[in-house]
Amino acid sequence: MMKKTIISMLLSFPGFLIFAQNAVLQCFQLFEEMKQKILILIAITTGFFLSSAQTLTSSNIWYDVMSNGAKADSLLTQKGFKLKYSGPKKMGGNLACYFNKKFDEWLFINDNEQGKTTQISYLLPTLKKYQKNQTEKKFLLMGEEVNPLGKTYQEGKIYYHLTYTFEKMETPPEKN
């Protein structure tokens, strides 16, 4: 009974309806602003995680893959690559082929007879990724090269081909 009395008193007050309307409108506006901010936040974080999930950069290849030898398989698996083939080459050494289905990228790792990685071929599906991996420069040591080889085909698709070559130069023995 008391609730009905209070409500009827508030409704009879002429300014209350305008106040209530404004309060409801402000709530809807706040909700819309929050919804926009949440969508922007989702877009930013999704873009951030997708770009950080991009498989490999030049630094990853030099520092993670080439320097880790046998441990490179687990690193590549963490990056989304799956081993398609690994076996001996006719000229000696070993060839391993990896494919990342999510990002449509190929990686061919060439090892010498001693098991040291000497060259990595990286096939990228877009010109943008190809150019990005060329612009990210590392101070190259003697025997290290990054060669952009342009377009190539793999399984009927066009890819952009980069090779990372690493030939450790042996230092001559000191003369006494």
Task: Provide a descriptive summary of the structure in words.
- It is built from five helices and six strands, in the order ααααββββαββ.
- It is an alpha+beta fold and 176 residues long.
- The protein folds into two domains: 18-53; 56-166.
- It has a six-stranded antiparallel sheet with strand order 1-2-3-4-6-5.
- The model is unreliable at 46-54 and 169-173 (pLDDT under 50).
Largest sheet: 6 strands, antiparallel
Report the uncertain regions: 46-54, 169-173
The DSSP helix count reads 5
Order of helices and strands: HHHHEEEEHEE
Residue share in helices?
Answer: 40-55%
Number of domains: 2
The secondary structure category is: alpha+beta
- Strand arrangement across the biggest beta sheet: 1-2-3-4-6-5
Shape: rod-shaped
